[in-house]
Amino acid sequence: MSAVFIDSNVVLYLLSGDAAKADRAEAMLNKGGIISVQVLNEVTSVCLRKLKMSWEEIDAVLLAVKAACDVVPLTVESHDKAVEIARRFQLSIYDAQICAAAILSGAKTLLSEDMQSGMKIEGLVVKNPFS
Known about the structure:
This protein has 131 residues and is an alpha/beta fold. The chain is built from six helices and six strands; from the N terminus they run βααβααβααβββ. Helix content is 55%, strand content 15%. Strands 1-4-6-5 form a four-stranded mixed sheet. A two-stranded parallel ribbon has the order 2-3.
């Protein structure tokens, strides 16, 4: 099975009050996968601003996520690909950047709750892991 790319919304369910979704997210991350630096940035932002976590707590979450997943960088190439995807599929630039990083990493599946499950973008299939 090819590696899966994991969106930030899936990672953030680790911290959810919804025990079933938190357990499911943990199981997915325990299998490993690929994330991008953007995913780390989005998780950090939500932990800080919405969840009001301390930097020490955020560091622990980020360390666990980085230990479980391969992290790919944001590059000019991924940006250019994201602009192309956003234009072609009418996605936000942020969702398109996640798709671009997934495609460039070689992932065939993107686990995300934010995008339409079943959507296909250049060989990448979006799947909602909670449906």
